[in-house]
């Protein structure tokens, strides 16, 4: 063993507090830096879940490189030599302070911007993040050679590291973001990094002293070499939860609810699993997690996949989160149980970080190119079941026969889709019964995993058929689909409709009958606020130049007149392709095929537009519940106003289930001495695809809005007064301050 007994004098000083405190501080700085720079970068690419997932891949890659460095340093150099090299690199890293984004950032307008995002992160925070990434394995290895009575098993320090990560993650949205601006956040983080360097220096000094006083007997202890299969097992046990983390984040943000900051939930649970499995309770918890995972599986599969419509979104979120937590606890519990001798500590952490990095790379750079939906998530649910202990029990291969026969025979139901719709309820019930059988196979990872895979394959296939999806494509910004549904028209006759979805959020719809094919619908209907605006200013808007942020299915184009000039600003080029395709939607082709399409983030694109050029600017970036906050800051509003003529109008679509966006705009109107009107529209009677929607119209002069205020078409009112709301700026936003 690599333990040197302490003398009574040295026993009075324990390095545990110093090392655990340093690891706690290091992890805390890491998980403050991640959301801090995420908040700086997300606006440049629209704030989609894929942007956060790409940031996560960068962090995981730097973490792997940090662990690789720690392994190299520990394997090739003595303790004192390690101290000299690492302190020199620490000193060099200080030149990166204070942390900041590179100047003149401009994301690409075409193609996948993931590589651009990784490059930007590397230039901005690559060096300090790399140094922080080395701390966990390096300091644990140093502690293992300090001669403390617990040096034989320093893995408990990993729990302290993850506790720091968890505290920082939760404190950012609830404490730091609401009270500290981005500029001060970057300054305080830089000061904290300097303090961390001092703490690492103290740990290095302690190792230096202990190395000088220890003999070399421990270095000659022999430890068994690591089998290759064990290392591959560690890799798989780290890969699957990492991929599950990003897959669940993408899935719940697009297919359950686009609730702001929802990504915190999976990441919090992920970190919590590391704290628990590497704590003193880890061994006792592991059997309970193994027993709970298949017990929850029946409810999870039956309600979250086979029939999710029965549950409210918050209960569905709880089920997904619980299943993810149990899967991660089982995988990470197996990792903790199989941790090696401290001589292999840095290799263990290196392989674990490699698995995490590969999981992120798979979700971000592989899955979007081979899947047209978030299929990596159910695949990893199955993979987590296959990693349960006991895979190669006697007769293990026989457990796969029943699921294989089901899969082969079940494909026959797809050959006659016309009759299939008559039996959807029966098939759904059969799938739920199969989900119940999963528990009977809980002792067989192969049988449990394969039966679950069969259920999920048929579930996704049936849902695709039932939704009548005509087209589906996945881009960096999410999953886009065109669906055909049937509604009852004004005379209660059936009528076909095409609908555009981003995940589960509807972004536009078009009726296909000749009389209604160019009628704007949903949030853009003629009875609604935006229709009222065009109607009230109909006499003077013949030659207007109009800009619209957000294209959707292109319904706004049907308000265009022949002499008007229209520009649509859309961040996702796939949306433009879908809206222009007459097989799916006809708005652009029939109403305004001359409209100019500008691809890229609206704020960056609008900066290039001539000043005082627009008579009307429509901000429709808020139809989903995912809020690009950078389009709502005071600086953003000042940019929009600079692009408007003196009598120009600025229309905001602010429909949102979770946030009272009208408060932010009301504060800006008050601070900038503007005039604004709000309408929270609800249809007086049922009209097909005319929905409730909220709009705000802003002008530089109050008399310009008199027509709307006195309108008989709708109920326009002044924006509400705001008290105690801190103004949103590029330096400060706080969504919790406007939570409904």
Distance between the termini: 59 Å
CA-based shape: globular
Helix proportion: 40-55%
Tell me the number of strands. Answer: 12
Uncertain segments of ≥5 residues (pLDDT<50)? 1-13, 215-220
Find the CATH superfamily of the domain at 518-738. Answer: Vaccinia Virus protein VP39
- Order of strands, main sheet, comes to 7-6-5-8-9-11-10-12
- CATH C-level name of the domain at 518-738: Alpha Beta
Largest sheet: 8 strands, mixed
Q: What's the mean pLDDT score?
A: 84
Question: Any idea of the CATH topology of the domain at 518-738?
Answer: Rossmann fold
CATH architecture label of the domain at 518-738: 3-Layer(aba) Sandwich
List the helices and strands and how they pair.
Elements: H1 8-11, H2 16-41, H3 49-76, H4 79-93, H5 114-144, H6 156-179, H7 182-213, H8 228-256, H9 264-277, H10 282-306, H11 313-337, H12 345-370, H13 376-386, H14 401-410, H15 417-420, H16 424-437, H17 445-466, E1 469-475, E2 478-488, E3 494-502, E4 505-511, H18 529-536, E5 545-549, E6 565-570, H19 573-580, H20 587-591, E7 596-599, H21 602-606, E8 614-619, H22 634-643, E9 644-653, H23 661-671, E10 675-681, E11 693-699, H24 706-709, E12 717-718
Characterization of this structure:
- This is Fused MFS/spermidine synthase.
- Keywords: Membrane, Polyamine biosynthesis, Transmembrane, Transmembrane helix.
- It comes from Methylomonas paludis.
- With 740 residues, the chain is α/β, with parallel strands linked by helices.
- Among the domains are: 14-211, Growth Hormone, Chain: A (Up-down Bundle), CATH 1.20.1250.20; 396-468; 518-738, Rossmann fold (3-Layer(aba) Sandwich), CATH 3.40.50.150.
- It contains 24 helices and twelve strands.
- Strands 7-6-5-8-9-11-10-12 form an eight-stranded mixed beta sheet.
- Strand 2 (478-488) and strand 3 form a beta hairpin.
- Helix 8 crosses helix 12.
